[in-house]
Design goal:
This protein has helices at about 15-30, 55-65, 80-90, 90-95, 110-120, 165-170, 175-190, 210-215, 235-245, 260-270, 275-285, 305-320, 345-370; strands at about 5-10, 35, 45-50, 75-80, 100-105, 125, 145-150, 155, 175, 195-200, 225-230, 250-255, 290-300, 325-330, 375-385, 390-395, 400-405, 410-420, 425-435. The termini are far apart. Helix 8 packs parallel to helix 9 (about 235-245) and helix 12 runs parallel beside helix 13. The strands form five sheets. Strands 2-1-3-4-5-6 form a six-stranded parallel β-sheet, with helices on both faces. Strands 15-16-17-19-18 form a five-stranded mixed beta barrel. The protein has about 425 residues and is α/β, with parallel strands linked by helices. It folds into three domains: about 5-125, Rossmann fold (3-Layer(aba) Sandwich), CATH 3.40.50; about 140-370, Alpha-Beta Horseshoe (pyruvate-formate lyase- activating enzyme), CATH 3.80.30; about 375-435, OB fold (Dihydrolipoamide Acetyltransferase, E2P). The radius of gyration is 22 Å and the shape is globular. Helix 2 (about 55-65) links the parallel strand 3 and strand 4 (about 75-80).
């Protein structure tokens, strides 16, 4: 029997869902009397909240584990959490003797109990994915920064052929409506002015994401609502209408397309075509003409020809993305795409990705430049590099630099004065700050 850890550090990798999970694990540990280790200090417990979306994710996780061993041979209690933990299970303990416990993303509410089991000399593993939500076992939300994540839906039933999410996060499940609204209220009372509703397919939320958004928008003190990530097939008319009718819902939509080629989309099992995707965006722009569109792209999926890739460049031009994420195809063990024929050479993927990055950057800069001269409101979320400089998020999720004495969490009215590919510059429009 060893002493229970007194300090902890949670390191989260990957998606926003992991960031939310990391925050919740920190709250769980804090509720047990542990404190977060100060920056630069060793922690008694380190939780590696891993992501499995890319190739060699498991190898990276074990490399991260190895770096936790100290020069004197000691180490913290090491918890492997997240999607790599779910995929590896008990095998993780065999691959690294440094790992003390393994917990999947649907079982992390048991983290304090598992830490106690480690103190008792055990090396527990829990990768269960029960039908009953874990959220009821998590502590109440008490405090927040100006922006906060709020998970409303987990898991995926789409089974895209390249994706491990259905295997690591389980089937789609939506949190009860009243529970989500109560957590949103608690986050706002704790200081949040902006909430981002999260889900692997957030717009598949049972009962309608638009209905949930309209209810949350009634919370006094909440200024902004966002949501991510959405599937094109679940963009309902009601959700599109909410963008026109709910003032607190920001003009930003992250809607992954992955490819502009119908042949590749079919091979990916995306269940939408390039044309149906564009029609959704046409309806969205009618509802909210100033909407900023973000997307995801995979380059080099098995069987992708130069013509298929040119179709992707064509949809990029057709949409004019304000921002986007793009990656080379990465085979994930156990997914159908991992055994498909027609592998694309790495040098071809590299070249196509560079071309895609360049095209996306052109559109991102064009979108940012189109906002020059506009008056808007930003939510201050951090300090800038220069004295007196602060950075805030625009309604379109751009980072805007401005000289102001406003504090983090304040809403500031600015005029956009200049644009860079990934940020904007602004000046105070008037001496008006909402705290």
């Amino acid at each position: 029997m060893t002493d229970l850890p007194k300090t902890y550090r949670v390191k989260s990798f990957g998606c926003q869902m992991n960031v939310y999970d990391g925050e919740r694990m920190a709250e769980l540990l804090g509720a047990q009397g542990m404190t977060a280790a100060a920056e630069g200090e060793d922690a008694d417990l380190v939780v590696l909240n891993t992501c499995h979306i890319r190739e060699k994710a498991a190898e990276k996780a074990y490399s991260d584990v190895g770096r936790l061993k100290r020069e004197d041979g000691s180490k913290p209690v090491i918890a492997l959490a997240g999607c790599v933990a779910q995929a590896e299970g008990a095998e993780a303990k065999n691959r690294s003797k440094l790992i003390d416990l393994v917990v999947g993303p649907q079982a992390y509410h048991r983290l304090p109990d598992m830490v106690a089991e480690v103190a008792a000399g055990q090396r527990p593993v829990d990768t269960d994915m029960p039908a009953i939500s874990k959220f009821g076992a998590l502590p109440a939300r008490k405090r927040s920064g100006p922006s906060a994540f709020l998970t409303v839906q987990e898991g995926c039933d789409k089974f895209c052929t390249y994706c491990v999410v259905p295997y690591t996060r389980g089937a789609e499940i939506s949190r009860p409506f009243s529970d989500v609204v109560a957590e949103a209220q608690a986050l706002v009372e704790g200081g949040a002015k902006e909430l981002t509703l999260l889900g692997q397919n957030v717009n598949a939320y049972d009962g309608g994401l638009d209905t949930l958004i309209r209810e949350i928008a009634r919370i006094d003190g909440l200024e902004r609502i966002r949501y991510t990530t959405s599937h094109p097939n679940d963009m309902t008319d009601g959700l599109i209408a909410a963008h026109a009718e709910v003032d607190k819902l920001m003009p930003y939509l992250h809607l992954p397309v992955q490819s502009g080629s119908d042949k590749i989309l079919k091979a990916m099992n995306r269940s939408h075509s390039a044309d149906s995707y564009l029609k959704v965006l046409d309806k969205m722009r009618v509802a909210r003409p100033d909407i900023a569109i973000s997307g995801d792209f995979i380059v080099g999926f098995p069987g992708e020809t130069e013509k298929d890739f040119e179709d992707t460049l064509a949809i990029v031009d057709a949409v004019g993305y304000a921002s986007a994420y793009s990656f080379k195809y990465s085979p994930r063990p156990g997914t159908p795409a991992a055994t498909m024929e027609g592998a694309v050479a790495q040098e071809v993927m590299d070249e196509r990705l560079q071309r895609l990055h360049a095209r996306l950057a052109e559109h991102s800069l064009a979108f940012n430049r189109a906002t020059i001269g506009k008056s808007t409101r930003i939510l201050i979320d951090r300090k800038g590099r220069l004295p007196g400089q602060m950075i805030g998020k625009s309604p379109w999720l751009q980072s805007v630099f401005v000289e102001t004495d406003a504090k983090i969490g304040d809403l500031v009215d600015v005029e956009i004065t200049h644009a860079l590919p990934n940020s904007m510059g602004g000046i105070l429009q008037r001496e008006k700050v909402t705290t």
